[in-house]
Amino acid sequence: MVDSNKTVLVVTPHPDDAEGGAGGTIVKWANEGNKIVLLVCTNGDKGTSDASMPSDKLAEIREKEQLNAAKALGVSEVVFLREPDQGLDDNDRFREKVVRQIRKHKPEIVVTIDPNRPYIRHRDHYYCGRVTLDAVFPYARDHKAFPEHLMEGLEPHKVQEMYMFRSETPDFYVDITDTFEAKMDALYCHVSQMGRPREEGQVQSRERAAETGKKAGYELAEGFKYINIGR
After folding, report:
1. Is residue 1 part of a domain?
2. Which end of the chain, N or C, is less packed with Cβ atoms under 10 Å?
3. In this predicted structure, what is the pLDDT of residue 82?
4. Does 33 map to a domain?
5. Is residue 166 part of a domain?
6. Whole domain around residue 140: which residue ranges?
7. Domain containing 13 — which CATH number?
């Protein structure tokens, strides 16, 4: 479990997904002295209902919003892969990029989105979660996977724990009662994605966090699917 002085790699499909799914937890862990690295897989260039918005301009806007949100979360470093929105896939090209960041930052903990939501789901959410799970185990662990990394000084690395947000079957809960407002600060840095004023959106977010909190005896909480790989 997360104490302090650990490195946490958060792998998120789009700008704003990590804030909505795990923002309160990220703030909490950062405040407790952990190093948080945020890996943003896509540029979010299709995330708008404004047909007149050029995709390249939207990608630029969303990257700036993500940097502002990262400051609000207490993130130490943001890495942008800049894959096209709706363009993630289960392939070695994408997998190598995630493995590279695991080997570079050597996190004890990896956080990502749960890929196992049934039926309707964003394909980027699925492939981000699925490829990250595979990158953690076995790819980042095994010397023979992407051996070119060794020539760059990137040694294999064993992640100890994984937390997956937006899970249909969470089994681990984090108390975000004291960090909920900071989560909302970060979420509302994504101005292009917020379809309603904060006063309205925050009510719904608080209700969801309260409903999750009831399952663990907290006022407000975020839920995760937890995997202990080190056992």
Report:
1. no
2. C
3. 97
4. yes
5. yes
6. 7-228
7. 3.40.50.10320
- Residues with Cβ within 8 Å of 174's Cβ and at least 6 positions away in sequence, in order, are 24, 25, 28, 221, 222, 224
- Provide the domain count of the chain: 1
Residue with tokens 């930052």: 105
Between CA 55 and CA 81 the distance in angstroms is: 16
Tell me: cis bond preceding 15? Omega within 30 of 0 counts.
Answer: no
pLDDT in tens, 49-90: 889 999 999 999 999 999 999 999 999 999 999 999 999 999
Cβ–Cβ under 8 Å, residues 28 and 177: no
Query: Which amino acid, residue 21?
Result: G
Residue 17 lies in a domain: yes
The 3-state secondary structure of the chain reads CCCCCCEEEEEECCCCHHHHHHHHHHHHHHHCCCEEEEEEEECCCCCCCCCCCCHHHHHHHHHHHHHHHHHHHCCCEEEEEEECCCCCCCCHHHHHHHHHHHHHHCCCEEEEECCCCCCCCCHHHHHHHHHHHHHHCCHHHCCCCCCHHHHCCCCCCCCCEEEEECCCCCCEEEECCCCHHHHHHHHCCCHHHCCCCHHHHHHHHHHHHHHHHHCCCCCCEEEEEEEECCC
Could you give the CA distance from residue 157 to residue 122 in angstroms, rounded to a whole number? 29
- Looking at the whole model, is its pTM more than 0.70? yes
94's tokens: 């994408």
